[in-house]
Amino acid sequence: MGGLRACLPWTCGLMWVATLAIAGVPPFVGFFSKDAILAAALPAARAAAVVRVLGVGVAAALLTAFYMTRLMLYTFHGPNGPASRRAPTCAKPHGS
Q1: Which tens digits make up the pLDDT trace of 22-76?
Q2: 62/21 Cα distance (integer angstroms)
Q3: Where are the alpha helices (DSSP H) in 24-49?
Q4: E strand or H helix at 84, and its extent?
Q5: Can you tell me the mean pLDDT for 80-91?
Q6: pTM metric for this prediction
Q7: What is the per-residue burial (b if ≥16 Cβ within 10 Å, else e) of 34-47?
Q8: Is the Cα dihedral 82, 77, 16, 62 positive or negative?
């Protein structure tokens, strides 16, 4: 499943906005929520655990950015799959 950008350009654009938001890119709300979660977790941790808490939070944010980027590249920009090497046909949805 790939190459859906040609069939679903609006969905692709909005999914990129959502990907940037959930990945925590600064102008989007995801950055501020991740920052607030990490800032709230630090005072709750003991001094020895601060590095571990911060490390787990940063690792989770990086993994989220990785899998969301992977989802976008495979779904909208990647090849259509091994069974079909041609571009996907943009059929009309049911009911229209």
Answers
A1: 888 888 877 777 778 777 877 776 776 777 877 888 898 889 889 999 999 998 8
A2: 13
A3: 29-44
A4: none
A5: 62
A6: 0.69
A7: beeebeeeeeeeee
A8: positive
